[in-house]
Specification:
Blueprint: H1 2-15, H2 22-134, H3 138-158, E1 161-163, E2 176-182, E3 193-198, E4 201-203, E5 206-209, E6 211-216
Parallel strand pairs: 2-6
Antiparallel strand pairs: 1-4, 3-6, 4-5
Helix pairs in contact: 2-3
Length: 217
Amino acid sequence: MAKKNKVKEEEAERQYPGQETGKESNKKKEQEDKTKEETAGKEETKSKKHKAKEDTAEDQEKKPDSTDEKENSTEAKLAEFQDRYLRLSAEFDNYRKRTLKERMELTKSAGESLLVNLLPVMDDFDRAIQLMESSADVKGMQEGLKLIYGKMKDFLKQNGIKEIDALNKEFDTDLHEAVTKIPAPEEKMKGKVVDVVQKGYYLNDKIIRYSKVVVGE
């Protein structure tokens, strides 16, 4: 059978030279189909590559816009922080000036109040001096001076000033300042204050002036 087919193909070749046989036609068709498939695959691959390149280029075009947006956002935040800093700095400077002014005014008013309260004592001294010039009543002048002295002590006490108790007390360098030493009149007075040259004072619990004393040895 195969021989007959072969013979027929040879006869057909002789009768129609240049024309393809059935097998060759099928084979050629298969090759053409295969070539078409390969070509289509290559074109599809090229298309995918081209599309990928386009997407990459598009992404690259988008990136600068995103970077610009970030830079603009950062600059805006920086400008906002700088504005806040300047506002806070100005507010703090105004607060500092205002509190300093208030403190100065408070100090002035406190000093004014103190001096106003001293004026009545000065009035008493003026009257005592006038009385000393025109009167020979020594006892009356003594009583008047004692009254003025008591008034002055009360004023100091009201303002938190208290005398340091030093006479006949143990010498204390935290409270007293020794101006000299003398032999103690008694044995028990050794190391103690035998005389006060100048009184010392507290202002509340703070020493504002040490007592100047004479110490027995």
